[in-house]
């Protein structure tokens, strides 16, 4: 049975010019211990559907779904107390801008201990010890010293490690990572992806990776959902997707990768869409 | 072949003033870099953040003066700290920046964006300026009716087209492109790369292309310079460098770049299956 199951999810935003459908009838499911990549370009609604799960969308958003369950529990019908127990405990999330995700006024140690004390009810002393453990497991050098550092004293890669440490503090069963490496250099990106993959295996948690980068998908995913303009174009296991893409949009996206260039010109996705419209 | 731009031992120092608690210090961001680019060729400068690649680009684009070494444009040594570049020299070298949202003035209409270089550097009359701007809009894949619109009315890819059009208004020899496609979606990136390739053929342009993305570099460059901590650790033709990287840092960069190759994915999926089977036992 799948851990997270979403059927026919639609998210509409009320705007000055009328309703805007950011997500249009999308199905997402992820199994225990599975790595699912949701890939799409900007405006594809890839982040919005996961923000809907986390309850992080603004009031202007209307969320409807035939089903939205986590481990059999209906996410849409949770009481606020139940929701607080689920989100941030069993489902956690990290974001694209690690430096912006942290509060600049407090040390990273204080921020991670706050999570442990408030969410898990630990004492200050226990929280300190656990924070140190977590810093070690996400590979932060000199963890004792770094607990007292402020976010601006750390690099982007280290801040993302801190965010990951916070996200795994409660041993979640599902971690949602929204473009976790987009702001980072390639060598740091590799370190962070390797870290996420090894944590995912060690903790046996499911991982949903939201990205626009086909390279990241190729290096991490078990299964892939391709989204475009709020709709799901294709879903496949990672090997079939790259080896034998079924949907014309996926094919166009893969052809637009510079490393797949044949000849002088890169086929562009809009050329594909034009060709589609002609049909 | 004519050498359009050449650098010899280029260095750049940044002076960090001392504050209440710290002493003043000097940071050498570029530590003696040599290169030359021939007409119609593309030199890609590859590096990670803090490598000094953008600092070098700003020197080549005549925006910042170098601290040491010589920069020559078409064989003429240029030092903008001694003498302001002439309009003629400015026309030869133009730059396109990474972020098309930040590099266009939000209060300036697209037409004015394109005509401004002509106003500053040439004595072309107003009517002809407008004509040229409209022709250039068409050339980069926009329409003359975009002339009176503001930058916020355009998408990221369209804005980068506007930035490229602005850079081309003075018929430059050399275009310095600092991460021109990094902020763009994959499909839009492909369009802009195609446009750059077409324009290079048409106007015999020389490119210095700064990027962190090896797959883009492999697609667009003739020669590649890998820069790390201000030092050019490796330089060579694209074929040589990608086929047989010599420097340890270059290899590390290559190893970190994700591959979308089907065989690599097959191998990874197989490894994962094995690890899972082992864990289950």
TrEMBL record, chain A:
Location in the cell: Cell inner membrane
Top-level lineage group: Bacteria
Membrane topology: Peripheral membrane protein
Single GO MF annotation: ATP hydrolysis activity
Record Pfam families: ABC_tran, oligo_HPY
ABC transporter domain ranges (all copies): 6-254
Xref: InterPro entries: AAA+_ATPase, ABC_Ni/Peptide_Import, ABC_transporter-like_ATP-bd, ABC_transporter-like_CS, Oligopep_ABC_C, P-loop_NTPase
Transmembrane segments annotated in the record for this chain: none
PROSITE patterns xrefs: ABC_TRANSPORTER_1, ABC_TRANSPORTER_2
GO biological process: peptide transport; transmembrane transport
GO cellular component: plasma membrane
Keywords tagged on the record: ATP-binding, Cell membrane, Membrane, Nucleotide-binding, Transport
Family: Belongs to the ABC transporter superfamily.
Protein name: ABC transporter ATP-binding protein
Organism whose genome encodes this protein: Gemmobacter aquaticus
Gene designation per UniProt: dppD
Automatic annotation (TrEMBL), chain B:
SUPFAM superfamilies reported for this sequence: P-loop containing nucleoside triphosphate hydrolases (SSF52540)
GO biological process: transmembrane transport
InterPro entries: AAA+_ATPase, ABC_transp_ATP-bind, ABC_transporter-like_ATP-bd, ABC_transporter-like_CS, P-loop_NTPase
Membrane topology: Peripheral membrane protein
Cellular compartments annotated: Cell inner membrane
Chief place of localization: membrane
Keywords, comma-separated and alphabetical: ATP-binding, Nucleotide-binding, Transport
Domain ABC transporter: 5-254
UniProt-recorded name of the protein: ABC transporter ATP-binding protein
Upper lineage: Bacteria, Pseudomonadati, Pseudomonadota, Alphaproteobacteria, Rhodobacterales
């Amino acid at each position: 049975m799948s851990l997270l199951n979403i059927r026919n999810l639609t998210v509409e935003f009320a705007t000055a010019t009328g309703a805007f459908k950011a997500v249009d009838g999308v199905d997402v499911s992820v199994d225990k211990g599975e790595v699912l990549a949701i890939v799409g370009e900007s405006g594809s609604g890839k982040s919005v559907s996961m923000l809907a799960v986390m309850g992080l969308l603004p009031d202007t958003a209307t969320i409807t779904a035939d089903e939205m369950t986590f481990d059999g529990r209906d996410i849409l019908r949770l009481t606020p107390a139940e929701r607080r127990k689920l989100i941030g405990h069993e489902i956690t999330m990290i974001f694209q801008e690690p430096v912006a995700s942290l509060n600049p006024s407090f040390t990273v140690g204080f921020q991670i201990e706050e999570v442990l004390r408030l969410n898990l009810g630990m004492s200050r002393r226990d929280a300190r010890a656990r924070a140190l453990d977590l810093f070690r497991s996400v590979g932060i050098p000199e963890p004792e010293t770094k607990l007292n550092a402020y976010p601006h004293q750390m690099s982007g890669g280290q801040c993302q490690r801190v965010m990951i440490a916070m996200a795994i503090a409660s041993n979640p069963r599902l971690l949602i990572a929204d473009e976790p490496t987009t702001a980072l250099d390639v060598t740091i990106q590799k370190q962070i992806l390797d870290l996420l993959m090894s944590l995912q295996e060690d903790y046996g948690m499911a991982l949903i990776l939201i990205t626009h980068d086909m390279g990241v998908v190729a290096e991490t995913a078990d299964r892939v959902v391709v989204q475009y303009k709020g709709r799901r174009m294709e879903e496949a296991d990672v090997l079939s997707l790259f080896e034998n893409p079924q949907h014309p949009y996926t094919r166009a996206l893969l052809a637009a990768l510079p490393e797949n260039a044949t000849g002088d010109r890169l086929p562009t996705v809009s050329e594909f869409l034009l060709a589609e419209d002609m049909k | 072949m004519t050498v359009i731009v050449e650098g010899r031992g280029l260095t750049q120092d940044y002076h960090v003033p001392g504050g209440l608690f710290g002493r003043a210090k000097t940071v050498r961001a570029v530590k003696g870099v040599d290169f030359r680019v021939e007409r119609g060729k593309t030199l890609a400068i590859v590096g990670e953040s803090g490598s000094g690649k953008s600092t070098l680009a700003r020197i080549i684009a005549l925006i910042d003066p170098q601290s040491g070494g010589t920069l020559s444009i078409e064989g003429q040594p240029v030092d903008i700290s001694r003498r302001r570049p002439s309009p003629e020299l400015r026309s030869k070298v133009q730059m396109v920046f990474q972020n098309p949202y930040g590099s266009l003035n939000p209060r300036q209409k697209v037409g004015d964006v394109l005509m401004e270089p002509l106003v500053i550097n040439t004595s072309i009359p107003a009517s002809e300026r407008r004509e040229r701007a409209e022709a250039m809009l068409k050339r980069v894949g926009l329409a003359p009716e975009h002339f009176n619109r503001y930058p916020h009315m355009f998408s990221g890819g369209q804005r980068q087209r506007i930035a490229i059009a602005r850079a081309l208004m003075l018929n430059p020899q050399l275009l310095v492109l600092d991460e021109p496609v990094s902020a763009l979606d994959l499909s839009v990136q492909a369009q802009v790369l195609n446009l750059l390739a077409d324009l290079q053929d048409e106007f015999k342009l020389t490119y210095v292309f700064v990027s962190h993305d090896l797959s883009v570099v492999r697609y667009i460059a003739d020669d590649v310079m890998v820069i790390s901590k201000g030092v050019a650790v490796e330089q060579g033709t694209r074929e040589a460098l990608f086929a047989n990287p010599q420097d340890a840092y270059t290899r590390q960069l290559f190893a970190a770049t994700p591959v979308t190759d089907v065989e690599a994915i097959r191998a990874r999926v197989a490894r994962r299956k094995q690890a899972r089977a082992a864990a289950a036992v």
